[in-house]
Amino acid sequence: MVKKMNDDSRKVRQEETIAAISTPSGESAIGLVRLSGATVIEIVGRMFRAPSGKKLKSFDSHKVYYGFVVDESGEKIDETMITVMLSPRTYTREDVAEISGHGGATAVKAILKRTLELGARLAEPGEFSKRAFLNGRIDLVQAEAIIDLIKSKSSKGFKTAFSQLDGQLSLALEEIEKGLIDVISDIEASIDFPEEELDILDNSALAEKLHKLQYKTSKLLDTYGVGRIYREGVG
Predict the structure, then answer these.
(1) Which domains does the chain have, with CATH numbers?
(2) Which residues form a coiled coil (predicted)?
């Protein structure tokens, strides 16, 4: 019963619409608030006013629109540009909205506060990427690459992390995994059906295949030290 309650709690939490300031603190030209979740259109539609009077739900996905964020009385909070991105073609594979207002703490905090008043929940650190992972948008290797991109201290480090985010490391690991599964399948088939004339590799061929997989794995492991230097620098 306790497990079911915990599972239900996690499900409800993931279904909530989350919001967060996505630009660094401090003075800047632009500040951005991002939302993701099932009620994004409803929440942002209640706080955004386009000069044309056009409603948010009629906006085209993945296009930028000009307007104002307003409070409950209709008073303008900030002049903004808004982008609505409908699932599944988004980072989290949920409906996403990005509200770009003036930089600095005051404007973006006011916009964020308005989203929370209308039912959004403040996102936990890394929760947008967590949802991208849970919804199958990225795997764990790519999720790790995101923080490496952010923390990279050199162009080489950035390039290495981007390659990982682009899925190249995941593809290499999948190739090794597939090779191991093929070997295991051949071994199990030879044990379960020793009398059958199956098209399976003999022991020497299996050993050679395992040796090649071991070599590929070792080559990947050898890149870790260099990649770490690229990401973190020499310390």
Answers:
(1) 2-134 (3.30.1360.120), 140-232 (1.20.120.430)
(2) none
